[in-house]
Structure formats: C-alpha cells, structure tokens
Specification:
The chain is mostly beta strands. It has one helix and nine strands. It is globular, with a radius of gyration of 13 Å.
Length: about 110
C-alpha cells in the first residue's frame, strides 16, 4: 500500500510552480502510462493555465487549493477548494484565477 499526503505534496508543487518560468508544476501520484487510471497533482500560479487540449478519457478535477476556471466550448465552471469538476468530453482548458492546486484524475479510454 502507498500513502501520499496530498496537502504536503500540494505545498511542495505550488512552491515549485511559483519559482518555475512556466508558472506550473505537476507530479503523478498514482498510475502512469502503463495504467488506465492516472492521478496527477497540478499546481498553477495565478494567471497561468493549461491551454486547450483534448480529453484522453473520463476525467475529474478536484480543487485542493485556490480558484480555477474550467472552460469547454461556450461553457465554463468555477472551482474552489473542495469542488470536484467533471471534465467534459472534447477540448477544454483550465485557468488559475488564484495560485491553485488540483488533483486531476483520468481514466484513459482503451
């Protein structure tokens, strides 16, 4: 069994994001290329974003810290700590309104 403190990891990755020229940092906490399920902790400085990209399968974004905006086509959803956002199929993007940390969970389509 593996135990991970998401709170400690969030602090660590957000510190990296604040120092990085890209304004972001990420770490896979479960799964990977060889698994269908992948969970990745993503930290973004305020004003940074994950540009529009396609969804590799079913996905959710769990907001751990900060405030984000998930956009898809003409719709958008605000996320605050504790919110779980279901990522719609198709192209979407994620903007950090404040310094933010999210847990992205993806089940890749076969």
């Amino acid at each position: 069994m593996q135990k991970t403190s998401l709170i400690a990891l969030a602090r660590h990755e957000l510190a990296h994001a604040r120092e990085a020229s890209s304004g972001r940092s990420a770490k896979t906490v479960f799964g990977g290329h060889e698994h269908q399920l992948r969970q990745t902790l993503i930290a973004l400085k305020a004003g940074e974003s994950l540009a529009e990209h396609a969804n590799p399968g079913e996905a959710t974004v769990h907001v751990l810290e900060g405030r984000v905006l998930l956009r898809a086509a003409e719709a958008s959803w605000n996320g605050s700590p504790g919110d779980l956002l279901a990522v719609p199929a198709g192209l979407h993007s994620l903007d950090a309104i404040k310094d933010s940390v999210v847990l992205l969970t993806v089940v890749k389509s076969r």
